[in-house]
Transcriptional regulatory protein (Streptomyces ossamyceticus), 229 residues
Amino acid sequence: MASKEITLLIVDDDPVVTTALRAQVNRISGFRVVAIAHTGREALAAARRFAPRLVLLDLHLPDISGLDVAHQLRRPDYSPTDVIVISGRRESAAVQAAMQRGALYYLIKPARTGTVEQTLLRYAAASAHLSAGEGMVEQRAIDRVFRSLHLDAVVRPKSISAATERVVLDALAAAGRDLSAHETAEAVGISRATARRYLEYLADRGDVVTSLRYGSSGRPQHRYRFCDS
């Protein structure tokens, strides 16, 4: 997650919804709600005053539509802000219009607490990937950002534990070079088959870069390197 706190504006005409969303966001480390707005005009005024990094935006507002709010937030006289829509509207036209006006993601009400939390954490991860780099970025780094941002990450299977995954990643990072499954297994203290399973999973997720090395026998050896960009 990015080291800098992510400020957030919640926009919804229903006070019950905004209260619930505020409570959900406040439980997530690294996020802070700076304002609540119940109308489009309140949202635009709050965005100008607080310059939030992220806006959780409903489309149904009593004065101007959320789509118009999203469109106006793109104007150069507003500080750059990202928008995630949370709406009860399910029409494909509404989703498409939100995307065209710059929405990064679209959640359908009622959004479960876990879904909101996951979405915000993925947003934070994508922001961290970009802020960690300097200058130019490689295509694989861009791919990782978009996988995080649009929730297209590989789902962790039951055979993959978070603890072992972390140990394998740490071993690759500490090595500072590519490793084979056998070398990774020795470094971590697990079987070669288990190391290979974790390495392939991490490669599918984009955290590990794979390559082939040909030896004297002509049979290629899979090598794995920690993706630090």
Notes: The longest strand covers residues 31-37. The beta strands are 6-11, 31-37, 54-57, 82-87, 103-108, 208-214, 220-226. The radius of gyration is 21 Å.
